[in-house]
Write a structure and sequence with these properties.
- The chain is an alpha/beta fold.
- It folds into 2 domains: 201 residues, Rossmann fold (3-Layer(aba) Sandwich); 176 residues, Rossmann fold (3-Layer(aba) Sandwich).
- Helix content is 38%, strand content 16%.
- A 7-stranded parallel sheet has the order 4-3-2-5-6-7-8. A 6-stranded parallel sheet has the order 11-10-9-12-13-14, with helices on both faces.
- β9, α8 and β10 form a beta-alpha-beta unit.
- α2 packs antiparallel against α3, α8 packs parallel to α9 and α8 packs across α13.
- The N and C termini lie close together (12 Å).
- The model has no long low-confidence stretch (mean pLDDT 91).
Length: 393
């Protein structure tokens, strides 16, 4: 932004995807991103978040609107021949309100751009992807999407690479804006640091690699019999179900304990703001064993902010997050995975060195204030399209 200028309060409508609630407890990463960034831009941006009904007592403190049509949409989603119209019904019910905004910021729903244009929306549309929604789209489909968008924002270069080569037009409209961490909340507390504690936090399902972590932990115990493993998280936000996968992990944990390993601590769901920082601050090492192409991995940045060294999988966008401030492994090679963890548990100086480097990298690249500034610059770049005008301060 040029000196002496400031951005007028653009009117931005944020559309959360699917049935995500705008809540720190029941919502996910998209709701958190929305709150963390726009709460820091309230002097420049007039924002309203649209999404699934969220109880006022659970909601983030930003303007939030919904529609009573959600009940009809829920019914429609259960009827095979009708469910294809669910999203258009939802957008149609909201459109009169959406049409007053200068910018519509759509989270993770590329298929919403065309209906909004066909309904007559003429402002700027910014599509924001945190997952691989476009990798399977053909070139012509991507070109058609590009014609409906003013910007496409993705959270990593990995995610951009899943489609960019198939559509130069869409690639030209794409910007990379990483996810962030609250470095006031997530900060080093070395007086809490525990010896030889391995931490995992994440969604409790197969693609997050919890089973592979337990298998690696069994190997770690051969050289560090006193090492402790903490597994935090649930199968969904604020909800935990005993799935077949969860039962399989617990059975392996029980078998390991029967064979003499220390008890594995399953914390269950952890409240992000109240519980999570102290677990990162206590851990010696944070393990991020995703076995799928993780687009970013927000917990990695939060662990780094606490100066906790990360052993992460060499998949998706995780290498971009860690840089040289962590250790990358193939999580399905349990010997390699265990060796990386064991090496850090054996070398406290290396742990501290990596932790400091990780913290510095996070503060420089992933602090939410940095992300908010990058987002504001992106909005400013929409100005040639007649959306966000600059005025003298």
């Amino acid at each position: 932004m040029s000196a002496g200028n400031s951005l007028k309060r653009c009117r931005v409508g944020v559309l959360l995807s699917g049935r995500e609630q705008f809540s720190p407890y029941f919502g996910g990463a998209l709701a958190r991103w929305t709150y963390e960034v726009y709460s820091r831009l309230q002097e420049q941006v007039e924002v309203t978040v649209f999404g699934f009904p969220t109880g006022e007592q659970y909601r983030y403190p930003l303007p939030h609107e919904t529609s009573g049509i959600w009940r009809a949409c829920t019914i429609a989603s259960r009827i095979p021949r009708v469910r294809r119209y669910e999203e258009r019904i939802w957008l149609g019910a909201l459109f009169r309100r959406l049409s007053r905004f200068d910018v519509l910021h759509i989270h993770n729903r590329p298929q919403w751009a065309a209906p909004l244009r066909s309904m007559g929306y003429t402002g700027s549309i910014v599509l924001h992807l945190q997952n691989d929604h476009l990798g399977h789209w053909s070139g012509p489909m991507l070109d058609a999407l590009a014609s409906k968008l003013n910007r496409l924002v993705v959270c990593s270069n990995y995610l951009r690479g899943t489609f960019a080569s198939k559509s130069p037009e869409l690639a030209g409209k794409t910007r990379v804006v990483p996810n962030g961490a609250d470095t006031k909340l997530f900060c080093p507390r070395e007086e809490l640091r525990e010896s030889k504690t391995i931490l995992f936090v994440g969604r409790f399902d197969a693609e997050k690699g919890v089973l592979q972590l337990l298998q690696a932990y069994a190997r770690v115990l051969q050289s560090h019999p006193e090492a402790r493993l903490v597994v935090g998280g649930a199968t969904s936000f604020g909800v935990h179900k005993e799935t077949v996968y969860v039962r399989g992990v617990r059975e392996l944990a029980h078998a390991m304990e029967q064979a003499g390993s220390p008890p594995i601590h399953f914390t269950g769901y952890l409240d992000h703001d109240r519980d999570l920082p102290s677990w990162f601050q206590k851990a010696t090492v944070f393990a991020s064993p995703s076995v799928f192409q993780e687009p970013f991995g927000l917990v990695n940045a939060e662990a780094m902010a606490c100066a906790t060294p990360v052993v992460g999988s060499n998949r998706g966008g995780i290498p971009e997050v860690l840089g040289a401030a962590g250790r990358l492994v193939n999580p399905e090679n349990t010997q390699e995975f265990a060796a990386a963890i064991s090496d850090l548990l054996s070398n406290s100086d290396l742990c501290r060195q990596l932790g400091r480097a990780a913290c510095e990298r996070c503060r420089k690249m992933f602090d939410w204030r940095v992300i908010a500034g990058t987002w504001l610059s992106m909005l400013e770049q929409l100005e040639p399209d007649g959306v966000c005008h600059l005025a003298s301060a």
